[in-house]
Amino acid sequence: MAGERAGHSLQATALLNEAYLRLINAKDVAWQDRAHFLAVAARAMRRILVDHARSRHYQKRGGDAVRVTLDEALVVAREPDRDFVAIDEALAALATVDARKSQVVEMRFFGGLTLEETAEALQISRDTVKRDWKMAKLWLLRELRGGTHDVI
Amino acid sequence: MSSDRWAEVEAVCHAALACDAEERRAFLANACQGDEGLLREVESLLAQESSAEGFMSVPAAVLAGSAGLDQPERTLIGARFGSYTIRSLLGVGGMGEVYRAHDETLGREVAIKVLSPAFTAEPEGRARFEREARLLATLNHPHIGAIYGVEEADGVRALVLELVEGETLAERIAGPGRAPGSDAPGLSVSESLTIARQIADALEAAHEKGIVHRDLKPANIKITPEGAVKVLDFGLAKVATPDSVGSDPSHSRAGAIFGTAAYMSPEQARGQNVDKRADIWAFGCVLFEMLAGRAVFTGDTASDTIAKILEREPEWSTLPSVTPVAIRRLLFRCLVKDSKQRLRDVGDVRIEIDAIKEVVPGTADVTIPAAVSTWKTRLPWAVVAGLAAVVAGIGVWEARRQPIVQEAPLANARFSLFTGWEGTEGGAEISPDGKYVAFIADRAGEYDLWVSQVGTGHFLNVTKDIPPLGGPGSILRIFGFSGDGGYIWFTQAGDSSAPKWLIPLSGGPPRPFLGQGAAAPSWSPDDTRLVYFTNGPGDPFWLADRTSANARPIVVDNAGFFAGSMHNHNPVWSPDGQWIYFAHGLEPTEEMNVWRVRPSGGTPEQLTTLRAAANQFAPLDRRTLLYIARADDGSGPWLWSLDVETKVSRRVISGLENYTSVSTSRDGRRVATTTSTITASLWQVPLLNRQADDGDVRPYGVPGVRALAPRFGGKSIFYLSGQSGRDGLWRVEDGNPSEVWKAANNSLTEPAAVSADGTRVAIIVSQGGQQRLLMMSGDGTNPRTLAPSITIDTSRGRGSADWKPDGTWIVVAGADSKGSGLFKIPADGGAAVRLVSGQLVNPAWSPRGNLIVYGGPAVGGRVPLLAVRPDGTRVDLPEVQTALGGAHRFLPDGTGLVYVPRSHPHDFWLLDFATNKTHALTRLSYRGRIQTFDITPDGKAIVFDRIQASSDIVLIDLPK
Predict the structure, then answer these.
(1) Which ipTM was obtained for this model?
(2) Contacts with A81 from chain B: Cβ below 8 Å
């Protein structure tokens, strides 16, 4: 799926394996075509990565860390695209405004699909994907900027 | 935001992105001519442009996998970092983790703020960073947290800062230690001023050196144990990020996300140039918050908050009444949205505060300058004849009232009890002119439709001479007013598919109206058109003339919208006739949400993501929709209000009563709603050779004032119990009670499925609006989800799961991706196996393990009993119809099946397998609805619950 990006670490491979196993075990899903498969796989990846991040997040907040204030812009990863939990929530919010853009982000970012693969999965043109991708990123960045992603 | 609006925003953005920097300003001014909202929306999105390039350019999986500073607290704590020893993690801030460390050279404690590699990457960034850090280091002020230096080691860069002990201002505002003896939130005026004075001092010193904080907020302000104020993170926001819009595109990777939206000045929110006046704004926000006890601009999402900052005036009424006029004036000047008109020098602030501190604060009347035209009303508590309604929030009314944008839609409303009758009333509908209310009540002994003119106290039984309707609480509307208010339409026998009749309000015989299958008609506000849906696969919508002639389908461009398994219910028009609101979703799993579509068809738009059986709606005005739904955890149903622009839902009334219906008059000034409080208790009746009667019934004692849904297993009885509409699972074993599942985790609405030996229990919990099967030990330990691909059906039956007596399988009614059906699931985990397809309910496994009896698809309130073998082969049963929601259980010796029949919903009957005949076991009078029952393990008695809903119809009058 994300074949064009080199440099997978062991951890990334393990996550992909888990995604693969989850998909394989979903026996009742009828794979209509490759596009459908890619879409479902991206969704599975998103769930796995976000669940994984959420559980790590809880660990991080416990123990020695002093209870930081209930402040809105509180826990944000150093780079915004590392905070999967926040992105997941922002994506859910985006989905109520524009479902297709949310799907584009899910496929590109969580599924690692190329523009062409995303276009195929959503049955739209490559150009449309590009435009959607652009708008979605602006919207998400604005949403993440100072949004409430505190997981207390 | 509507989809049309969004398309507009998109188009302008794309075009603007194609312009170069100079052209863009002109283009935007032209494209957004006169539309301030559009301009702001577009600008706030374009402000992200420079960060967007690198954002998400690497897929998540790779980011997750890349090692390095992923879990820094593991790598750094205890380690040496230059000449510092890391002690502990203090917290996480906007730019990176902050640690407590010990300076080995100077022997003092410091704070170390580790910076993201992005900051250290490019040489240009690094040089700029160092320049700025040097400038910050020259700030030497008692109220400013000092920068000691920059340290670099092992490829990690960090700022070394003064370690300031004590709590932050945010903590102080939120926590105890406020004005002693007062219940009011916020700090006392004198404490607020003392703190503000020191902040102003700090700002003045920094501004003098040309340093702007940019990120001033209560979390950044610390109060030392000695009571001194220290402002932290001065200027770091600028130091650590690339320049704003229009800068060098090689700064592709975004820096940290900084700046909490709540304290951003309008120019910051627009991504425009920022100078010291942004600090003045933030200062105003902080002072306001100290006095009022809560943030001046806040919202559920960043966009919400930003919208308020840009468009709304602060709620001056939230300042305590003792706030001196001079302070109010100061705040007013700090919080001016146009930075050119705002107070520009912090020195002025300092002078103002000094002057005030010499004067005793008075309680003078406040005159707010004319530019801000809002006024406040404080909401009285409405207590009416035993009904206490608590309305959340305080409404602030805008001078112009269309559309009404309010914090609390029912602010200032007057509540009155419309019916306080014994028994059950419900489903209240109000006529378009608000003068009449129609509802269902069992006052006359059976369910009838009643009408009353508000204020007359005179009630008319409309269906007195017509066969009964069936009780309230139907998901689908079964009666209502016609568009001109002259008629009431209704369906017979509570079967929403049955033909509709019209009965004139002024009297006269009913006449036929809509044919079989059409359901829930709703007239447009101008009374020219009618919308309804046909009850069948997909529930498609139809638009017709007001007389129901010329019906044509409403066509949507979403192919799966009317697919066989989807349900669409109860369409309702918006007050301007532009939209139709309706419930859409997978009904059996209660995943119904509020959607809307244009009457002309097109793209349907989703408005809620509650997924909790939202089914009745009533618009209040163009922007607000009231509806009934459960909460995500299964509690409720409650009354909610939805702002269709922002898509924010909130519970409207907090209290213990459930709300089961809502209807509004055409002008949105009168609301009719049904409240209900439920009591539940357990009873027992013995199985005798004769029919048992009321004299044989005894209470079945368990701890708790409320108990329902009994289930036996081994030596235990399990049942649901709780308070405030939230139930958990309890168990009594050998006389010892224990709470097996706490209601606080997740409110339960279904009886537990208990294994025959009582050692294991399966419950159905609501997780994010979906019902799932959770298995655990009989004492509540080791919970785990079974068959996550199945969502459970709880809408029509009770007890949707049962164990095989040998404990190896559980049968459940639910749905997977292919559709609804009965499934058997291995008790120790594994995939579910489909047994039978269809919308079925309430499976019960026979004691000998060779038969599963369940309820078939309900038609008109009747549920046929069907049976199947565990391998899926059908078995014929004699014809038995149980009541909707009625349960059936096997006798422990397997010789028969006890059930509650449709014909006698207050009695128990037996289907004897030896003779295949049925007969009545009891002859009881109605003392409450029987919802769930079980047979004692010795087969000698039936233990059942009795649910009594005392419901009343309440009218809510809003000011005109």
Answers:
(1) 0.76
(2) 55-58, 60, 63, 254
